[in-house]
Amino acid sequence: MAISIDDVEHVAKLARLELSGEEKETYRRQLSDVLEHARVISEVDTDGVEPTSHTLPLVNVFREDEVRPSLPVEEVTRNATWAEGGAFKVPRII
Amino acid sequence: MDIIYSSGLELARAIKDKEISSVEATSAYLDRIEAVEPRVSAFVNLCADDARGRARDIDRAIAAGDEAGPLSGVPIAIKDVLSTRGFATTCGSRMLEKFVPVYDATAVERVTAAGTVMLGKANMDEFAMGSSTENSYFGPTHNPWDLDRVPGGSSGGSAAAVSAGEAPWALGSDTGGSIRQPAALCGIVGMKPTYGLVSRYGLVAFASSLDQVGPMALDVSDCAALLGVISGHDKCDSTSIAQPAVNYLSRLTGEVKGLKVAIVKELSSEGIDPGVLEKIKATMDVLEGLGVACDEVSLPSFSYGLSAYYLIAPAEASSNLARFDGVRYGFRAAGEFADVWEMYDATRAQGFGPEVKRRIMLGTYALSAGYYDEYYAKAQKIRTLIVQDYARAFDTYDLLVSPTSPTTAFKLGEKMDDPLTMYLSDICTIPVNLAGIPALSLPCGLADGLPVGFQIMGPPLSEQKILDAALALERELQFDPRPAGLEAG
Predict the structure, then answer these.
(1) Active site includes B192?
(2) Where are any strands of DSSP class E within B378-482?
(3) Segment 26-85 of chain A within 8 Å of chain B by CB
(4) What's the gap in Å between the CA of B365 and the closest CA on chain A?
(5) How many other CB atoms are there within 10 angstroms of residue A30's CB atom?
(6) What is the rounded distance in angstroms from the CA atom of residue B130 to the CA atom of residue B173?
(7) Is A52 domain-assigned?
(8) Which CATH superfamily is domain B8-255 in?
(9) Is the ipTM, as predicted for this complex, more than 0.85?
(10) Could you tell me if residue A59 is inside a domain?
């Protein structure tokens, strides 16, 4: 399963990762290798097999909708590189 | 008493009986860390002053006759993937180099409530992605048995710390073998519990349907004690099983007579180092000698486990790691950006290391339009077949066994340029995570001077049976977990 530089650029855009030219070529080669290896799964007959996303027989887990204290704003913003006045600062969005 | 290499339970007893104080125990480990850490590099950050302070408080409480936790005053190392309130939690990443959590992970809260004293945060592959601890932003950890070799990963710091006598025990996390494989490579005991037995609250997420927190220790009794402390329902984790904590230690008997055990053919033939296989077969013979009926079983779906895992885990990771955007916490790229998208792209490019980017790319690809059915959905169906193969085997056998790792510890740098070869290190441990079942790695001897791990797997919630089998073997094998080379070096 060989993937192209175009594929790499498309996936990097979806994943919001800026890649250098060298990185693109490395990932193109390495992802091709891993996907080639992964192709063995296409040989397996899985007709009528349900997918497993989770191994526990859990359905929705609910709790009472009660008001509880939340973290103070200073704690919430403490780990942000750019925060001011209890808000997170970001570059222009629109 | 010799504090270093005493078991955690021996230390707990000695502190409770006032034979030694917690300050003495804690200082002994901090001194040991100072002596060997320049060669081993098991820790990302140490909290020596906080540890001494807490040990003093515990000694005072014990002297005053106050109610003390069962593990009061005993030091512990915590893998740096578990949130520790007020103390940096880096996940081995530049992205979280300066991140200080505002709450404790539930597992951390529980070992603290039991009275343990945190010595520091143990090194790991970045975001728990790796099998050698070489993917840490803070540099690799070295295997105490041979400093030119890897300790395994991703919980390599936790394993090396216990092996080098820098901590009596540790917490790790296991998504595809990250507790068991480093435990095997460093000659200690490590256990991945049933999915949902231990709360994932405060565990930085890698692949949420696979991740579990678990104990790493010098012996099986310590492993049982620590597992008992961290197990049990937590309302903060909706996937935590609704049952109370279990006291595995008090029920530990080492009874195995009459059990039926089978070695998994697909995990013990092709690609397994002959020296490793020889030790595994010898350990099977020991089991047989203890009155266990031993057999071999073929579980054909396991041949596809590695491929399914390396689609499912990166897919979940690509989604989980989307939260690292440089806005609310973590690293943010410096500079002026025309818009928020440029800032995201640069932050993630600079904040993540090569393996994390590789897995995000792989996972994003497997989930992207046009490939979802071929890769991700197909891998989830393979996962079902693995669950079914295990269920069928456990109809006949009480436990299944295999090597934990196909090789002993490999050289630093040996597999770094070839991700696929590195991924093959997880071939024996991965099916367990895909099926959500418990498994333990027990040191069963040395091959060419390096430890070999014997993996014991059981059906969901069979931790007690696994621990009993491990204890029975441990008594027979008499493995010495102290690496000889470390003292000489």
Answers:
(1) no
(2) 399-403, 439-447, 450-457
(3) 27, 30-31, 33-35, 37-42, 44, 46, 49-56, 58, 61, 63, 71, 75-82
(4) 6
(5) 18
(6) 12
(7) no
(8) Amidase signature (AS) domain (3.90.1300.10)
(9) yes
(10) no
